[in-house]
Records
---
Amino acid sequence: MTSTSMYREHILDLYRNPSNFGKLENPTNYYKEFNPLCGDEVEIQLIIKNNVIENVKFIGKGCAISIASASLVTDKIKGKSIDDINKFSKDDVLKMLNIPISPGRIKCATLSLEALRKAII
Ligand code: FES
């Protein structure tokens, strides 16, 4: 097995069994972002208290990269301040995915980040 296929396996595991998948009862903030290229969507729901992400969940449908990314992003931001979230970049998400992402898949990889940014505006 090459290291690339190991990374792909990691992405597929997250796709099949993502962290934080589901709905929050009373989110303070939420946003559903679409990928216009394929029609896939990810909705991020947050409970923000005193400028801190107390809880986060997501729902949606998408490719393995978009769902794996939403899983990683939601894990990463739990307990973080809004200031930390504002510093969280596209490159940070690509680093967490840890696989080569072609330019055509960047939107897949950053769908959850876009939803997150719009949810906290
Ligand atoms: Fe639709 Fe990736 S192909 S989000």
---
Amino acid sequence: MKIAVGSDHGGIHLKKEIVAYFESKGIAYEDCGAFIEESVDYPDYASPVGEKVVNKEVDLGILVCGTGIGMSIAANKIRGIRAAVVSDEFSARMSREHNNANILCLGERVVGRDLALSIIDAWLEATFQGNRHERRIEKIAKLEELR
Ligand code: RB5
């Protein structure tokens, strides 16, 4: 299991906490930036993380900005990405079990460190349930063909 992580300046502190958490747990990750605290544009970081996920260079992605919203909107423009912005463990689990979310988006200004790490645990422990949910994921993929 390898996870790509990315943030803008609004999520850089939480990203650092997530990276430290992965280090402590021996979870493989690739940090796609940002590496500076100056103002940057979140689509520039959603892009490499999303590309790595769809190209199967990593298994999953985690994106952090101030709210998680900008990152989720940007990442969901990439064909094959199902990015979910969540701020509780239940939604995190459901985003994997029902929606097969391949990117988790978090808001540093919304969730604290401990809740964020708990959300990540719930997300990583959950697995896609398939069956009727598979049909719905396929219908989402069909929507991408409209573009
Ligand atoms: C940056 O100020 C902020 O807009 C960004 O981190 C994010 O919250 C956007 O959705």
